[in-house]
Amino acid sequence: MGSSNSRYLKVLREYCMANDNRVYTFLISPSRTSKIRQLSIDKNLLRAAAAVVVFTFLLMIYGAVRLGQHEALNLKYLSVKAENENLKQANDAYENSYARLKGQISYIEDMSKELARKARMEHSPEIDELVGIGGPETVVALDKAANQLERDVRHINDHLRSDILRMASIPRGLPVNGYVTDGFGMRRNPFNGEGREVHEGLDIAVDFGTPVTATADGLVIYAAPHAGYGNLVIVYHSNGITTRYGHLSRISVEAGQRVKRGDQLGNAGSTGRSTGPHVHYEIRENDQSVDPLRYSAQSSGLRVAN
């Protein structure tokens, strides 16, 4: 046993001495009695192999890091792409809304101009400045245009409302549908035919009890018997204009009541200084009587008794 080991060591020493240090030599003995085999590997080759292994390992690490970075960038790209797509859709929706709103403002602008013309406001410097803003190209300008048009429309609406109220308070037509037996101005005394007198309104012959209606919006300031008028209703309208309805058989309103054109004031009769059922209708401006036919939109269709 000892001699065998000594022989093995002797062979190893002799082999190592016979070979230089440029190689690594591996002695392989499958068993104690087997023939010793040797395996020599060049040091440089072994070092190169080790270097290759280390480089491959580092390359694998680098590849894994780069792959992770690439995946992260890819995820970020997909996220940004989705966000951009959402922004594009939102921008498209905004542009559509903007174009629609711009068209609506343009339409309202045209309508405001048309309303201004109908309200006879086209020559007003104020309206010329307010109406006709032009086409806005920014959201801020669009917002300003919308606010300006809102003020325009409110201004025009107030003007139209004022005109409507003013027109509603101007007498129009007649309080009854009948025959005009006496007009405005000088006339012969209807009772005895002697002499002439001033007639301050129209006498309109109708059946007894015919409803008598207001010819304009206003405020009833008198509703009671009054001398030769008999039962009398006086309505104040505006700008000093009043209307009078005389000889009524019955009064349907009272002082302080507001009435609108067409509202019933009473019924035709023959109270006061009267020769028969009719309505005495007067219009006064600042308490001065004027010809009612000046205000009557139906004057061309009046039926005048011969």
Structure report:
The protein is built from four helices and 15 strands. With 306 residues, the chain is α+β, with helices and mostly antiparallel strands. Among the domains are: 74 residues; 126 residues, Glucose Permease (Domain IIA) (Distorted Sandwich), CATH 2.70.70. The strands form three sheets. Strands 3, 6, 7, 8, 9, 10, 11, 12, 13, 14 and 15 form an eleven-stranded mixed β-sheet that branches. A hairpin with a 4-residue loop joins strand 9 and strand 10. About 5% of the residues have low confidence.
Summarize the entry for a quick read.
With 306 residues, this protein is of the alpha+beta class. It is 42% helix and 25% strand.
CATH architecture of the domain at 179-304: Distorted Sandwich
Number of extended strands:
15
What distance lies between the first and last C-alpha atoms, to the nearest angstrom? 172 Å
Strand/helix succession: HEEHHHEEEEEEEEEEEEE
Q: CATH class of the domain at 179-304, please?
A: Mainly Beta
CATH topology of the domain at 179-304: Glucose Permease (Domain IIA)
Shape: rod-shaped
Largest beta-sheet characterization: 11 strands, mixed
Helix fraction, binned, reads 40-55%
Describe the secondary-structure layout.
Elements lengths: L1 H17 L4 E6 L8 E6 H76 L6 H6 L8 H30 L10 E4 L2 E4 L7 E4 L2 E4 L5 E3 L4 E8 L5 E6 L4 E11 L6 E2 L4 E5 L9 E8 L2 E3 L12 E2 L2
Parallel strand pairs: 3-15
Antiparallel strand pairs: 1-2, 3-6, 4-5, 6-13, 7-12, 8-9, 8-11, 9-10, 10-12, 10-13, 13-14
Helix pairs in contact: 2-4
